[in-house]
Prior knowledge:
By secondary structure, the chain is an alpha+beta fold. Helices cover 34% and strands 25% of the residues. A hairpin with a 5-residue loop joins strand 2 and strand 3. The structure holds glyoxylic acid and manganese (II) ion (2 copies).
Amino acid sequence: MKPVQVNIARLQNEIDELALITEAVPPVVTRVLFSDADLRSRAFVKKLCREAGLVLREDAVGNIFARWEGAEKNLPAIATGSHIDAIPNAGKYDGVVGVLGAIEAIRALKNSGFQPKRSIELIIFTAEEPTRFGIGCLGSRLLGGILTPTKAASLHDRDGKDLEFWLKRGGCKGRLDSVKLPKNFYSAFVELHIEQGPVLEREKKSIGVVEKIAAPSTLSLQLTGVGGHAGATLMPGRRDALLTGAEIALAVEKAVLTSRSPDMVGTTGIFKIEPDAVNSIPCRALLEIDLRDTNLAARNMALPKIEKLAREICARRKIKMRFERLNADPPAICNAPLVQTVSGICRKLDVSCKKMISRAYHDSLFMARICPVTMIFIPCRDGVSHRPDEYSSPEQIAKGTRVLAETLAAAAVR
Length: 414
Ligand code: GLV
Ligand code: MN
Ligand code: MN
């Protein structure tokens, strides 16, 4: 077998090309599930997979599987992958590095003459981002059996369009109950991703090997007050939905800061009001709150506390509230032998590495329910992500891709 050589110029070109497929004006990347841009990006990636000689299949929720058949077809495959959907106003590396990097890793392994015993399967997950339906990791949740087909079918976007509508638009076929895969369908899952935080850059490490993924949760609050003329309605007795939401958002911040859990983070990332006119009292507000922690008990204590505070604020301001927990997931513990494999490969390649926690969530969180997982992180500039100026250098991407290729190779001959 020849040495595994990553063609970083080709990979960087593909990353740049995919970034031009966007609903926004480049360099801003926005690819919401089954938008025109998302559909074109899926076609782009499938073409690369075909050119790499991979066999494609798609499931009923649009997860794409691209397989390099191993010599022993009946053994569980080793899987890798990530997502290509992107939140509004995103950059070009989140998810993409794990998909295009995996295609390059497979091409590099093929060029080296490597012959896998187990099949190697790339998964491009549907809607890792929560933009369309409010919950993230739609594809991997269904695949791991965390989201039931009935619950999935009840999802709808803010315009009232349900999952079935979007699946039809995405050209998906089949029944949702066929998506779930049995436990140990894969021998392991390894996801390459940008860190989305500052640790690797600060500590001058090239690779992060993920040992644990923080527990995410999302709350949705619909507030209904009373609107009216901004000039003619005097202040006493107003029932302003925006001010109520603002108090709730500040209460979330305070609940997190006083939780004594250093890893807890809370964000009111969505705050929409109606009628959204300068001379009209806001009568309705929609808030979505993202709350995470590496400590599940602390996160689980904060959730009811935030609900209680929101109810108190609404009662005092005479606002009606519909409160919904969209998700409250446990953390994932990565597989120790797999973490050792990746660390060992870094040592062999003389690449500096650090074991770490993922504070962002990923499809790996849900793949962990059906097989051993770990993640390979690469640094990103200033820890910036979910922004158009997100950046990882070609050298960093090349190292991550090389480590992924060697990890897949090691796991595919076991
Ligand atoms: C994933 O995009 C996350 O929000 O952690
Ligand atoms: Mn993301
Ligand atoms: Mn991501």
